[in-house]
Amino acid sequence: MKTKHGHDASDASDGSPALDSAREKDTAERILDAASELLAASGYAALSMRKVGACVGLSQAAIYRHYADKAELVGKVVERGYGLLRASLEKIGAEVKNPVELLAAGMHAYVTFAGEHPRLFKAILLQDIGPSQDRVNALSPGVARQRKTFEMLAGLVAKGVAEGLFSPCDPEITAQAVWAAMFGLAARMALEQGDRNGAGRRHAIVERQVEIIIRGLRGNKEKS
């Protein structure tokens, strides 16, 4: 039997270790996809291993072979989401070195991520996700030591200050403030998919927000 994702409902092995490993990995990814969709649609409380299994054509017992419990499953959804975002930011960091340009590119990438992965963004950042919620808290002290994305952002702010491009500030608090400003816009991008006719205006809004943030960080600085 085929599921709505186009895969066999059976999780049976064909005896080949390489193929078995690939199949296990594919099944684990399909489970994460289904969990993300269910989280975005109904929230953490309504999520269950049984519902996830139904979405991918597997029994509840089969889901438990891949993930120990709901908390672990949701934790993996969070890890994958931040992993995708971090990879896009690291790619930019390898290509752009100027702190001002890098920060602007990073903010664009964050909003673009929300627009391109709306279900994932909503699942991990716009929903109560139970015990995993502590892993996405962004306004607590020390977040730059706990989350790689904030470490990167705070480090970028500190570099801009050191190079005289940004006004003196607390790098972590500033990173949290910048993130909070972009989060609001990214959330609207994820929630308001819109149509092609509105793409130009949404782009202009992003450009304006980035400009406002950069100008605020630079203060009276005149260097570019």
CA-based gyration radius: 20 Å
What's the main sheet like?
none
Unreliable runs: 1-10
The CATH homologous superfamily of the largest domain is termed Tetracycline Repressor, domain 2
Mean pLDDT: 85
Strand content: under 5%
CATH topology of the largest domain: Tetracycline Repressor, domain 2
Query: What is the number of domains?
Result: 2
Which architecture of the largest domain would the CATH scheme give at its second level? Orthogonal Bundle
Distance between the termini: 60 Å
Strand/helix succession:
HHHHHHHHHH
CATH domain class of the largest domain: Mainly Alpha
Helix content: 55-70%
Structural class: mainly alpha
Number of strands: 0
Shape assignment? elongated
- Count the helices. How many? 10
Q: Describe it for me?
A:
This protein folds into 2 domains: 17-67, Arc Repressor Mutant, subunit A (Orthogonal Bundle), CATH 1.10.10; 78-218, Tetracycline Repressor, domain 2. Helix content is 68%, strand content 0%. The chain contains 10 helices and no strands. The chain has helices at residues 17-42, 49-56, 60-66, 70-95, 99-116, 118-125, 143-146, 148-162, 171-191, 199-218. The longest helix is centred in the first third of the chain and has 26 residues, at 17-42.
Secondary structure topology:
Layout: H1 17-42, H2 49-56, H3 60-66, H4 70-95, H5 99-116, H6 118-125, H7 143-146, H8 148-162, H9 171-191, H10 199-218
